[in-house]
Structure formats: structure tokens, C-alpha cells
Predict the 3D structure of the following.
Amino acid sequence: MNISRGQKVPITKGRSVSDLNIMIEWQNEHQSIEVDAAAFLLNETGKCSGDESFIFYGQPVSIDQSVKQFKQGDNQNETHISLQKVSSDIQKVAFTLTIHEGEERAQNFGQVSSLSLRIADKSTGENLVSFTFGEELTKETAIVVGELYLHNGDWKFNAVGSGFFGGLAALCENFGIEVESNKDNHKQPDPIQSQPVQSSQEAVVPLTVTLKKKEAISIRKSEKVVATLEWKSKKDLDLYCFYVLKDGTEGKVYYRTPGHAHKEPYITLDGDAQGAGKETVVVHKPSELKYVLFSAYSAISNGIGSFKSMKAKAVVDNQMGQTVTSPLFEKNNFAYWVAIAKIDFTDPLDMSVSHVEKYSKSGTERSPLLYQNGSFEMNVGPMEFK
């Protein structure tokens, strides 16, 4: 199965698979570039529990023998994982690449080509997943290639393919391991005592994803979220942000009630476009929100016409290098309303952005409603007139 960046696919569901072989390959345009692979064994908080959870050239085998790493020449790395041996406190394995002394030598992944990952059933050799990535990389010196993670008792794979600046040290910090520089050592810094990173400014994997139909993805919960409604048409669309606060307060931000930044609902609408282009909503305190639903309204004066034909889309940016686009796929010529994307803020660290594309009944002016539990319904809210 060939997959693309941002896609999540099942590995063990419906299969009898106990041992995996993960192969990462690359080609160097400059032979002096030294690429190193590593794997981070992560607990439910997304952090390493200790130095023993960091698998690399200097520590190629995990304590429980479930993860073993092998370097195959200068352009390939293999990791063998015995799923039945993986400790119960390991919920995720992150596969990474770094360039040794990349910053010092002015070397980066823009100079490395043909990056790919393949997951196979170690017992049968059957190829389960193939992932090619790296076209968008430029000056980065570290990459989170992908993540093998547990979900409802089954292992899945998340194709990340995004880069860091700062090499191995940035990756280690992101995964809760401190490093100390050892310039006399030919290789990368050695890990020291593992400590969870508490700062809200900790390194975050850059990510740019366009959701598929009904797909969802988790990104880092930040101190400010910017969401835009973008479209290409002379028709005027309006962005509505329906919300549920932590205290259960429900409401909406739109052109008539543009919201407040420093008090409830901590959401503001940045003006009304009054024409083609873009409207922006800013969530100033995501920590005070439970859910938001982004919807678009097409005024009666626009007449009929598909939101899809207007190329309408919602773009969510956490202001930390992670952006999620929710486009429209269905043709619907007679709806005045479309719900496009929803954000779930209830997790303490991450927020889930979902593609929810759903249209109002033909000709109805009734708006959507977002409920306390995060579900929503079309055609039940008040009528809106421009």
C-alpha cells in the first residue's frame, strides 16, 4: 500500500502479524553527508520514559529485545520490531533521521533525495506500507519519518515526513530526552537523564496536511489558533465558528457577533470579507474551549451553486508550524450551509482537527448547531439573513 504524508493506516487490524521490518532508505547528493536513523519508544504522554527508550547506533537494541536496529550500508537502515515483546507502557514508536553535524557542515535534507520508508511482515516478507517523502524539505537537519502507534488494541502507522531544525538534539528534546554536546565525539550528542519537556515552546514537528474525506489528525494544542475560510468565487461567503467552552457555554462567532479576545468566548472574527477571498477566526485561548465547528454560509443573494465549485476550504494553523486544510469533496448545488471542519480541544496536549463536510437541506436557511458533547446537527439552528 502506497501512502502519502499525513495518512494513517492500519498495520495489524485484520492481519496475523507479529514481527515487522521497517526499512528507511535515502540517497546522498554529497557523499560527505552522514545520515543516522533512530527510534524513540514513547509512552502515553508521547515522551521517552528514560534513555533506554532511545534506540540508535550506540544503543541498537531495546531492553526487552523487542526493537532492534541495523544499519545496512550508508543509505539504508532497518528496524525489527517484535510486537508481542513490546512493553505495555510503550504506546508509540517514532522513526527518525538526522544529519550528523548538519548545522556545522551546512548540510541538510534538501541535499538528500529518494527518501522512503517501507514496512513489511518480517515473517513472510509481505510489503504492508510504502511511504515516499521529503520533496518539501529544504534546510532541515532532522526528520520524523513516521510513527507506529497503538489504537484500540491494534497497531497503526502515521506517515509524518516532516523536518526539524536543530538535528538530534531537537528531536531528543521533543521526545523528553536531554542531550549534552560532545564535540570531541565523532558522532551525535549522547543522551543523559530523561526529563519530560514542560515548556509550551518545546520543539514541534512541522506539519502541513490536507485532510481526506472524513479524516482527522491531531496537532499540538497551542496558545493561539488561526482558522481561515478561503474560496475562489465572486460570491460572498461567511465564516461561522460555533463553539462550546469548558464551562459548557455554547454560542457562535460570525459577522454580527465578532466575539472577544480577552473574555468569553476568547474567539474573534477578523472582519467580514464582503466578497471573494478569505475570512479569519482567531481562537485566543484554546485552553478555554472544548469544541469549535467551522461552517460556511452562502447568502440567498448568491443564488444556487456548489461550495465545492467555489473551492471553499477551512485552514487551521496552530502557529507552531502545523497547518491542516479541510477541503470540500461533494457537489451540492442547493445548500446554503456547509459544515467543513471541527476541532476537539479536550486533550490536554493535542487538538484533533476533523474533516466533517455536511450540507443543509435544499433551500433551508436554518443553521447548524454544535452540542455539548461535540456532535453537531444541520438544519436545526435559527435562520440567518445577510
